[in-house]
Structures are given as C-alpha cells and as structure tokens.
C-alpha cells in the first residue's frame, strides 16, 4: 500500500456499529485491495463501555467521549450510528463544523432534517453519505445516483420495512392475527419493543421521502405523505386476497404527476396494498426488502435484499466510507450531490391527495346478517359511481353479523370515500368499513 490510511471514527456501538467494526476487521484486506490504501477505524465512542458484543477492540481508542472524537484531528470521516433525532442532529452538525465527512444510517433524521444537514455539509465542503438509511444492504441509493442516473424515473414501488413484511408474511402463512404475530416478531428481535415506527408505516415514509428526492429530484415533507400501517389487517383479508389472485404488502409508492400548464406534483404514499400474486414484489417474503423502479430508458428494475441487520447495514455503511475515502484521496471530496440532484435542482413539490387516485379497491364491511342488506350496500356504492367486480361473504364478528368483501372496478378514490362514508352511517353496519388499495401494472 503506497498511500496513507484514511482515519475513521464511530459513534454508537449498537447493532449496526458492531457490524461495522466486525466488517472493517474481517474484510480489511479486500477493502484495502479495492481502495489502494487502508481504512483505519481509529476511535469509537459509545454511551456505555459495556458492549457485550464479543468485539476485539484491542489497540482502539474506545471511550464515552463523543465531543473528543468529533474534534480528533486524526479522523477524516465520522460514522453516526446512535439513531434518534436530537443528539444525532447535533452530533452531525458538530462533525461537519469540524470538517469531518459523515456517514449515517439515520433515515428518521435525514427525512426530517436532511436539507439543513446537506446545506451545512456543502458549505463546509464535506460529504454526508447515507446508503444504509434505505434498504439496508441493498445499494439502492447508489443505483439511483449512478446506475440509473440517465433515466427519468417514472415510478417506484418498494417493500421498505422488513418488520412489517415479516408480520404480513406470517399472518398470511399461519392465519394468526396481527397482535400474535407481532409478539413473535418481538421475541425473535425482528420488531422493536415499541413497534410504532415500523407497523404504522412511519419508517417506510421516512425512506420514501429520501427515495423521492433521489429518484425524482422532488422535496416533499415526510409528514405530508399519506401513511397507513398494518394494524387493521385481519387474517381473513389474506384469505380473500388469495381468492382474488392478490397478495397484501406494505408498499411505499411514488411517481411524478405532471400538471396541465407545467409543473408537477408527486404521488407519494405508504399503505397496505393489494398487488397481483404473480408480480415480483408479491414474492418478497419474511424480513426481506425489495424496491421496483421504472426508468424511461432502463425500463423495469428490481432491487432485492436484506433491509436491516448488523452485517447488511454495515455493508452499506462501509461502502459509503470507501466512496468518501476514494474522493478524499482524489481531492474531490465534498463535491458529490448527496441527493443525486444538485441542490438548485431539488424542487419543493406538493403531494397528490388520495382522493384523486384512481384504481381498484378492496372494501370490507361488517353488516347485519339479514335479507336485503347486500342489495342496499351495492345500491349505495352504485349511487356513488362505484361498480363491483367481485363479492365474497364471510362470517362476521358476531352470530348476527357477516363480513362482506368487495373488489371494485377501477374507480376514483373520492367516489369510494363518499360511498363508504354514506354506508358507515347506515344502521345495518356493524363494523366501520375498511379499504385496501389495489396497485397493478408496475
Ligand atoms: N438495526 C438495523 O438493522 C438498522 C438498519 C438500517 C438503519 N439503521 C439505523 O442505524 C442507526 C443505529 O441503529 P442500531 O440498530 O445500531 O441502534 P442501537 O442498537 O440502539 O445502537 C445505538 C448505539 O448508540 C449508543 N448511543 C445512543 N445515544 C448515544 C449518545 N448520545 N452518545 C453515545 N452513544 C449513544 C447506544 O448506547 P445505549 O445502548 O447505551 O443506548 C447504542 O450502543 C439508527 O439510525 C437506525 O435507524 C439500523
């Protein structure tokens, strides 16, 4: 090795941090052979010194002094792996202020405060890299920034949260309800003790915010993304979906929607989605992730892999370290557009309201088990312009109620919303109506 090492510091020695240390140690040779110089992890800071991860840290500067690490002149790159918002935001600002390049996996932070952090990095001439924040080990951000850079992206559909995909796959396979499967996922370490971010779609919305910027050059607010989680799904939904030739996945979906007269809005949403059982995404099971992207030149592409876990996530973190280290050695670090589009070309965009969507819908009604109810239900749907493709009736929550499952023809969502609101007011309704959107043709 002719060139001197690039110095790296790590803050946060949890699941991913431990994976990064192990990967840097295990693959030091191959990393140096690819770079032409070594990456040297010189310093680690963590809140606790008891790591219990069986790490070999001899010779490494390891303490609780985060500020000391951020100011250490021997470090070129700082890795932030503490997670959360406030402390991580402050940490990254301090690192940037000290002239350090930063690698992070913190999608929650970037979705909320990315613009401010990227601006600060650009002003200081350093890079902020975040491949691990979306899709874990899948190099999806690099694919958008490099491999697909010549394309106009026409649509993006992703299974972006492994916890929810595991829960949905298990509910479908076992017929167990949401709470039982979630409890199993927690025992297996596949779901957090507080699963809110995962099961309510918040994590997927964070990732979608970053993907929309990278794929479409559009700045959207993650709080404005219509987001529904998976808590309301019941085992019978999976049975009925199968009979309709569909499967249920929690998808993040985005596409640009040009406006007449110029400009555009962005269709961006996260919700349980029925997709054709034969589609590639329908076959992504367990904790795996997959993102399907349609480019105007490349056509359909699909990226599949482990969306979380110590080593898959470390794979993405270390790839970022290597990219920045190369740029440092070549003298052009700090000149990469982190969101793929140059900052001047990232355009604030509004999100298309759900009411304007058009597609097939699966509707579930709990209704009184008496003659004439089904006729009233379908009449109310017809009054609002919602026509029915298929109907199934299954047992309800009590002896005198049944569940009616309907698949509509393509309809504007505003019509479905108006029809279900009208139906919900009827006395024959025993449970509030639910709706799952069908997405096809991607
Ligand atoms: N886990 C995954 O598979 C995965 C996948 C993709 C992205 N990510 C992202 O990667 C990041 C890290 O996730 P993780 O799963 O590795 O989290 P984790 O296991 O909770 O690890 C975080 C570590 O940082 C330490 N820490 C927290 N606040 C600190 C502070 N202010 N100063 C110093 N140390 C601090 C924690 O110490 P204590 O234990 O004492 O709190 C813990 O050791 C998060 O942004 C997460 O969203 C994780």
Description:
By secondary structure, this protein is of the alpha/beta class. The protein has 3 domains: 6-137 and 310-345, Rossmann fold (3-Layer(aba) Sandwich), CATH 3.40.50; 147-306, Dihydrodipicolinate Reductase, domain 2, CATH 3.30.360.10; 355-438, ACT domain (Alpha-Beta Plaits, 2-Layer Sandwich). It has 14 helices and 19 strands. Strands 12-11-7-9-10-19-15-17-16 form a 9-stranded mixed β-sheet, sandwiched between helices. Helix 1 packs across helix 12, helix 4 (86-97) packs parallel to helix 5 (107-124) and helix 5 (107-124) runs parallel beside helix 10 (202-216). The longest helix has 21 residues, at 310-330. It starts with 5 loop residues before the first strand and ends with a strand. The mean pLDDT is 95. The structure holds NADP nicotinamide-adenine-dinucleotide phosphate. Residues 11-17, 45-48, 66, 81-83, 87, 105-106, 132, 136, 308-309, 313 line the site of NADP nicotinamide-adenine-dinucleotide phosphate.
